[in-house]
Amino acid sequence: MKPLVKQKIAFFSPVGFIDGENAVDIVSPQDIDYLIRAKLEGSFISLKKVIFFNKRGITLLIESLQKVKDECGTVIGFCDYDIKKYKMILDMFPENLNFSLFDTIDIVTLFVGDDLKSAKDKNILIYVSKNEQKNQLAMELYERGLSPIVAKNESDFLEKRNDAEFVIENAYLGKLDKTPTVYIKDNVIVYTLKGFVDSSFAKKFDMLYHINSLKVGFKIFLFDCDAASSVNVHGVNFICKLSTAGAEYGAVVVMTGLNSRKVTDKLSNDLEDAGVLVYPDMKALFSDDEIMKEAHDSSSVAKKNKGITKKLVSSLSVIIESTVKTIEVLSGYNTNKNSIKIQPLSILNPEKVLSVSLGLYGDVEGVFILVFEKTIAKKACKILLEEDSEESDVLEALGEFIHIIGGKISQQLQKKNIKIDVTMPRTFDCAEDLLVSQKETKGAQVDLSANGENLIIFLTR
Amino acid sequence: MLSEVTINNYIETIPPIPKIVKRCVKILDDGDLVYAADIASEDRALIHYLQSIVNKPIFGFRGEIKNARQIFGILGLSKVKQLIYGYYLLLILPKKWEVFDFNASLFQDFQARLIHNWEKIVKFLDKDNASINQAISIIPATFIVCEMLFRDINSTVSILRNKKQMSYETIFYKMTDRSFFEVASLIAKKWDFSDNILEIIKKIGDAKEGDFGENALIISYFRLLLIYEMSRPSIVKAGLSDLFNLEPIFNDELMNNFYKIIQEEEIR
Asked: What residues does CATH 3.40.1550.10 cover in chain A?
């Protein structure tokens, strides 16, 4: 069963019954291989649509996921259940669990995965019956830069419950021994290192994710060693290599939480020689206005004098065709091509549009931008939207929409032996920001009309 | 994008029921099993289908059952009728499946399991309902509907499903405002099933639909059976387990009884 991958977490959503007969097909050997290759932060089974499970089924699922955990430290467990299913699992495994249980998919993303945007400044309430678990859950969230409220007792919990946006009630934190784990805080990519940082760290490190983040435009990469026991020469060498490689993108590697017990003076000097900035702790880094300004400015830096390349032009027809086809399939509208020109990005009514961009990298590198008039944007994304959706929902759906188009482009180019991958999408509710980011940039602009309204495809380097 | 036009075009391609088969059903309605068997044996494809289904391990017959009279005699009126309605679906079965990793043999296994397990439930409840039995035989048409309608846009839909957790049913509904069960009922209409049966087919797939009156319990069991069969290994492997939006049934008594019936069956 193919999992849905969201924020570096794979979610399997089996339907109906889980037993010894079908469990091996829910997480199949091919899925295990994929999860090991993908080096994700977490792999979870959603029990939302499951109406019955037995111990044999649950055990087989966990055994499959355990292989992934053993290979790359992925956090594994179950989510999306009610109290009855939660208690059933705890009863099935009365000894300590070696996997985690989280009430919902959203709560999984508080503990695992790289995107904490949705949790930022949100009211998180924890109340689980076992004190030890309650504290561990809270500590883990503190470590990820969140500020949960821990209910003292049941009445305190009931009182605070209504104001809470995330309620962690039926959860169990299995051992989270993955290192490094990653999340994004204030435009800084934070890798949390635990235990010994040695050659195995380089082996488990998700280099593709790191390179992708560099290409998207992140400029500060923090390796927090607060929970690490020590960093040896292999660990230091690897971080130095990352620092040197990141310099090409103007990125800086920062380390925090180091002290003389964790790293020798010589290795510390090696880090500094490689351009790694060392701060005593995370607080010191996030209080440094200068470096934080760097982190925030970076993502909107205009690229200068970059234009479309021959390689991009040769892929243009596939890109346009894939885009148009996807728009037509998902929106139901026929589209007409009005013009194709090599020019700077030109938007007739910037105040009336929503736009989104996506980076392409691999055999062909470029930036792919879609500009929709607001009315057509909502119609085009209707398949991804709930009925009562606001402009922010449409913008988010546009991000998913361009990601689907990116997938289609990648699929079609693959047929021509051109391998590409895509970055995460970036959405713009204000066209001015987009125009600034593409200032002095020429590209191929395709003006289309769908159902009488305008949309633009812009492809540049 | 799928639309009403796509659905109508598809329905137009549905072939009519062969005359011999229609005649056979009519005779079965009159209750004459032997004569019906003789009529059925004039359609070699029908007999071949009945043989292949009835000799599947799930039916548990020791020796091979070959001729029409044997088949009709062993199965009895109700089951024979269900199997013949199941045969209707062969008329629209794709030769090659593209959206799902499925084939005719696996499809027939699914039909056989559904019909066989349904009989156990009917016995347990002691409540046989001819209309519901007919509707159930047509339900697997939903697999074929999804396969045929999504075929041309499969590459885009599979990317969409990779990025967003959506069942085929949700995507289909967002595109056409219809459910697979509604399209299956249009197929049944083309095959001259009664309005009552068309309604049952439509309603079985409607998560919000609960008004089955005195048949509410039996329909709940059927939904449970459908969810159960949709989570079997061959269906999961084929990618079909995420076809519907059938609402899970969280009812302990129902669940325990259901699992007891199925487990007894599996153990035997």
From this structure: 310-460
Greatest mean pLDDT among A72-76, B183-187, B259-263 lies in B183-187
Q: A12, A21, A50, A52: which to substitute to probe chain B, counting the most B Cβ within 10 Å?
A: A52
Judged by a CB distance cut-off of 8 A, whether residue A7 touches chain B is no
- Closest partner residue to B171 (CB to CB) among A28, A383, A411 is A383
* Residue limits of CATH 3.30.750.24 in chain A: 4-168, 181-300
- In tens, the pLDDT along A332-343 reads 888 888 888 888
A14 and B233 in contact by Cβ < 8 A?
no
Q: What is the mean pLDDT of chain A?
A: 86
- Please give the interface size between A and B, counted as residue pairs whose CB atoms are below 8 Å apart: 92
Let me know if domain A310-460 sits in CATH 3.40.1550.10.
yes
Strands A166-168 and A124-126: parallel
More confident residue, A175 or A148: A148
> Which of the four pLDDT bands, split at 50, 70 and 90, describes residue A303?
very low
Whole-number Å distance between alpha carbons of A326 and A356: 15
ipTM over 0.85: no
Mutate one of B231, B244, B259 to test the A interface: name it (highest A CB count within 10 A): B231
Q: How many helices (H) and strands (E) does chain B have?
A: 16, 0
Closest CB from A25, A52, A404 relative to B160:
A404
Q: Is the peptide bond before B248 cis (omega within 30 degrees of 0)?
A: no
Q: Tell me whether A359 touches chain B (CB under 8 Å).
A: no
For chain B, the domains span 4-267
Dump pLDDT digits (tens) for A440-460: 788 889 999 888 888 899 988
Q: Is A87 on the interface with B (CB under 8 A)?
A: no
- The fold for domain A4-168 equals Transcription Regulator spoIIAA (3.30.750)
Binary contact (B255, A18; C-beta < 8 A): no
pLDDT reading at A201 higher than 90: no
Distance from C-alpha of A122 to C-alpha of A376, rounded to nearest angstrom: 32
C-alpha torsion sign, points B160, B165, B167, B172:
negative
Tell me: pLDDT of B76 over 60. yes
- Given a contact cutoff of 8 angstroms between Cβ atoms, the answer to whether A242 and A221 are in contact is yes
Q: Which of A52, A330, A384 sits opposite B255 (nearest CB)?
A: A52
pLDDT at A296: 66
pLDDT band at B266 (very low <50, low <70, confident <90, very high): low
Specify the fold of A181-300: Transcription Regulator spoIIAA (3.30.750)
Residue closest to A455 by CA, chosen among A440, A445, A441: A445
Architecture of domain B4-267: Orthogonal Bundle (1.10)
Rg (CA), chain B: 18
The DSSP element (H or E) to which B225 belongs, if any, is: helix B216-230
Residue type, B71: I
Of residues A311 and A431, more confidence is placed in: A431
pLDDT digits (tens, 9 = 90+) for A119-135: 777 889 999 888 778 88
Residue of B nearest to A85 (CA): B250
The SS3 of residue B30 is coil
Task: State the Cα–Cα distance between residues A431 and A450, nearest whole angstrom.
Answer: 20
On average, the pLDDT of chain B sits at 87
